[in-house]
Amino acid sequence: MKNTTTTVRRRRHPMAAALATALGLSLLGAAPLATAQQAAAHQFALPSQPLGDALNRLAEAAGVQILVPPDLVRGRTAPQLAGKYTVNQALDKVLVGSGLTHRSTRAGVITVVRAAEPAARPAPRPAAKPVAKPAAAEEPLETTEIATVEVTGSRIKRAEIEGPSPVTIISAEQIENEGHATVFEALESLVMASGAVETELSGGFSANAHPLNLRGLGPGRSLLLINGRRAADYPFPYEGRSNFQNFGNIPSGAVERIEVLAGGASAIYGADAVSGVVNVVLKRDYQGDTFKLRAGTSGMGGRDRVDAQWTGGRIGEHWSLTYALQYYNQELLYGFQRDGWDLRKNPAADRRLGVEPTAALRIRRGGTSSSNPLIALPAGTCARWGGEFTDWTYRRISGGNVQALGNACGSWNDPRYVHLSKGKNEAAAYVFGNYDFSERLEGWASVQVWDAKAESLGGFESITGPHTDGVGRRGDFFDPQFNAVIAPTRLLTPVDLGGVEDMNQHYKERSFDLAVGLRGQLGDRFDWDATLSRAEYDFERTRRRMVGNKVNEFFFGPQLGTRPNGTPIHRLNLERWLRPLTPAEYASISTLAKYQAESWVSTGSFVLSGDLFELPAGPLGMAAILEASRQGYRLDSDPRVQPGVVQLYNLTGTNGGGERDRYAAGIEFSLPITQTLKASLAGRFDKYDDITAVDDAKTWNAGLEWRPTDSLLIRGSYATSFKAPDLHWVFSEGSGSFGSATDTWRCIAAGANPGCSGYGYTMFTVTEGDPNLEEETGKSWSAGLVWDIAEGLSVNADYWNIELNGALERISSTSILADEAGCRTGKTLSGQPFGFAGDSAYCQLVTGLVTRTPEDGQSIGRVTQVRSLPINQSFRRVAGIDAGLNWRIGTERYGRYNVRLNWSHTLKSERQVLATDRIEGDWRDDEDNLDFRSRVTAGLDWRRDAWSASLFTTRYGSLPKFNGQGRTGVHFLWNANVGKRITDKAELKFYVNNLFNSLHPHDETNSSFPYFYEVYSPVGREFALQFEYKLD
């Protein structure tokens, strides 16, 4: 039976410095490149073992890459190999009597192939034209059948790894050599993963997920496949709005390799394959058992990590069983465990004011404006918190002069009560088994389970005024004690709660993936594969939060009335306000909020592939697919946080749920035009059955491969793509959020535009789902080359361009408030005439989205709620260059080296948020764009006898400075490891990640804590020791 390969050629792309290093090594005694790898003799000591294992160990010992179709080696045993041989000699001895042989490409990739019968008996189904082997005149000519594999980007099996679209392949060995502890860490290091995402530091709605943002087009626009099958969405929407897939729940111990196609591929895989496809290929046909234990910690303390893996399998004459078990534990890292996480280290503080602590306990007179004076607190108040608070005189700049606002309690510690890295406790299991019923029929099944518990800390709660159910807190009220409107603020601390741990949020997650299938051959030309699969993801999140009416009862008392302008009247309980709570008191005014969510996808597919007939230049390849799936989700936030209810203090959430059925048919062709030119063409039709305006989608792609010589490939591809509206965009029952925005109407009315300083405040925004949304559409194209310069040395370069139309975006509260102001004043922030009349339908819509309530001293009411909407209007286009180099060097004296270099540079990035907006052609360099313009990775691996070492670096390009004037410096991270095989079965490795303890580039203009962009990690240098033991 024909199957996919377990070891494939990697085309990864390292850098000039590493290239110069490797060149220097070669000048110091490397053998000539053309003969270094396979002509050099190596010492082998391989016992008799399953043939697949023997070939893997041979490749590892010789530093070469061997393509091994698993069906060819299953059930075969290799003889013992001991002595010094060249690679070709060693392969001949290992394959003796197996009916197999080997062949090499110019780039040094070795393929194990079946030795065909003599020419008188033609091979049953050659995948390429037979190649004659020189022989004596009296001997019959011998032919070989070239193995074919399926690589992400096409369902047609092919003899070459490289195709019309660039595909990056990361092996399990490479993940380990580069120092990555998880699959997500490996994917995050890819040069095409340049887009900013909600990180661990950001917290937010999806705080325990690990999204991937390829090309900066957004997490929901790259598709995650497990063994070619769609994974279930993360149950909680990204930033509370859109669905995406979690790249953090894949057990690294089960991974064979990862294939990444960065570009549109909807014609092959359907919706969501807009910016790329990540296909995680899990292990199969494994023989023996391997145990790995890795333990480590960070150099600055905290984040202890333990990773235990057991991978094993058995192979019989007609069957195989592969299994993997993994346990991973990571300690929660707090902000107060890092000296650099300090509010006082503000590099851009105003020299007249210096750095001021967070206002932790204060009473502002006259309302919420930052210019209002503070009411003095009784002496000794701050000391009651035992060092958590400090007495501070707050000041402001007014008219160029420093003006004192008054005394209050400040906190230097509050920003430190956050997590820098979540605590995790994960267990995973994976099993794959197959059985050959005959030479033409195979059955298989796989199951993967991942169970995780995690905890995080997103800061402590604050109290800023009385609460109103359905709306949330109000920042000010009239207090007869002071005969004034006051705005009180108070932060809770570990003193109030009885410890930091009591404020941790807790997560429970479980994903499950089950698939069964049959595959076989139809005649001598076609392979078929029928698959049924089910993937599920369950999520639970709990957190302790205060209850709004209990906060009112404890601190503010009952409402005593209402002022003529609508301001409520309360009497602040000063005895309770000016002292710490006891843990029992906090427990009495708080509750446990619970969020539950689940997502699922069930899929059935049938694929038929093979050669239709022979053309003058070769066979016409074809693959056809029929597919049906049902996808759904259900999200149930705590009923007390739903928009319109909001009974918990300063906490909101989102609810929703629905299903979507999809039916698809697709076909691909691989058309050899000449001996050197091949074309590919694919088309797909997707039919949707749900409540949206989406009925169907038609996508296609085309590609060309020109090989003027055996060593040069010139390629190009064009693809269309689409993305159906995310289920939560459609079925959301309302998503709430608290955030700061500028009250543009007040600003223009006061003549403070365009700066509007002092006119921003916190308001509540509700986003609702819309079943009338349409699909996003896109197109992408690329052109480039792959050149095998010499044996072991190859380079590649590709230009890429991706365009996205009708992208779904939420209209921000800032945009809505700006248009509301335009409708009411007839002016824009810049003073220009607004584009719509005040009585137009558009203005009636926009003004109806804003809810205001009266406020003392203001002729224009205060914004209490903005109702936002998702729309199909956004336009995005990105274009750039990817390039890479892969160089393998073998020496007799100094060992074997592998140099990898990858580079990606975004040349152009454009966007248009609304159809009425201008296209921002310079979005790439915009001060609000935190996508990296460029990324470079470089790796150097070395092995000699029992020793090995690796060095890996990532160079992150610059980002705009905080003040928008200029850009930050670049940022380098270095990982290194060294290993020693202490016996034939045991190996030790020592890892140092972030070798130089580099945290982030310095930005002297950044005045917003933590004073660097949160795309960088504050963890610092980490150490780990790994022990590996093989059981045969």
TrEMBL record:
InterPro entries on file: Beta-barrel_TonB, Beta-barrel_TonB_sf, Plug_dom, Plug_dom_sf, Secretin/TonB_short_N, TAT_signal, TonB-dep_rcpt-like
Organism per entry: Lysobacter silvisoli
Principal subcellular localization: membrane
Start and end residues of each Secretin/TonB short N-terminal domain: 64-115
One cellular-component annotation, GO: cell outer membrane
Entry membrane topology: Multi-pass membrane protein
Signal peptide as annotated in the record: 1-36
Gene Ontology biological process terms in this record: iron ion transport
Keywords: Cell outer membrane, Ion transport, Iron, Iron transport, Membrane, Receptor, Signal, TonB box, Transmembrane, Transmembrane beta strand, Transport
Compartments, record wording: Cell outer membrane
Alphabetical list of PROSITE patterns matching this protein: TAT, TONB_DEPENDENT_REC_3
Entry's family note: Belongs to the TonB-dependent receptor family.
Name of the protein in question: TonB-dependent receptor
